[in-house]
Design brief:
Number of domains: 1
Order of helices and strands: HHHHHHHHH
Strand content: under 5%
Helix content: 55-70%
Distance between the termini: 23 Å
Number of strands: 0
Radius of gyration: 16 Å
Length: about 170
């Protein structure tokens, strides 16, 4: 996947992601987050509480619509409902500034939503390449999400920056 991703994004974005994941310095994290987010378009602004709140609101609205509008087999209807409940709990936690406490929930929600969209194919080892080929923007997003650890011991600020990047993509998808 790492060789393939270089066909779609600049090396500085890959380097910035590696720095973002490795760093504990808030200035480096913010700078790296901006470079990585630029791969998902322009307008990534988390400089004020108001801009963060606006991003979270857009993310929640768009992800809720995506979940609700995704056609699924009857057997996956309950999963849709579970994801919506998890999303509400997740949003409530981050609104209380508990970013580090919900990092695992965030990646699980994203995994579940992608499963709803693509079915069992989302669990396939070939899915990242498939995603890059059918929709490079989405493929880059999925590469980003899969680069994140399932659990971490990062600071609240680092978890916030990492999650806001993914939210930025989904708020505009």
């Amino acid at each position: 996947m790492n060789d393939l991703i270089t066909e779609f994004i600049e090396k500085d974005a890959i380097d910035s992601l590696n720095l973002l994941l490795a760093s504990s310095d808030n200035a480096e994290i913010a700078k790296s987050a901006a470079v990585v987010a630029s791969q998902f378009g322009s307008g990534f602004d988390i400089s004020t509480d108001a801009s963060v709140k606006k991003l979270i609101t857009s993310f929640k609205k768009n992800l809720t619509l995506l979940i609700q509008k995704t056609w699924v087999d009857h057997s996956d209807v309950s999963l849709k409902e579970e994801i919506l409940v998890k999303l509400e709990k997740y949003i409530a936690s981050i609104e209380e500034d508990k970013w580090a406490q919900v990092s695992g929930s965030f990646t699980k929600i994203l995994d579940d939503v992608i499963y709803l969209m693509f079915g069992a194919m989302a669990k396939s080892p070939d899915f990242p390449e498939y995603a890059l080929r059918i929709d490079p923007e989405f493929g880059i997003f999925w590469w980003y999400v899969k680069s994140l650890p399932v659990t971490n011991d990062w600071s609240n600020e680092k978890n916030k920056a990492v999650m806001l990047i993914a939210m930025f993509f989904l708020a505009n998808y």
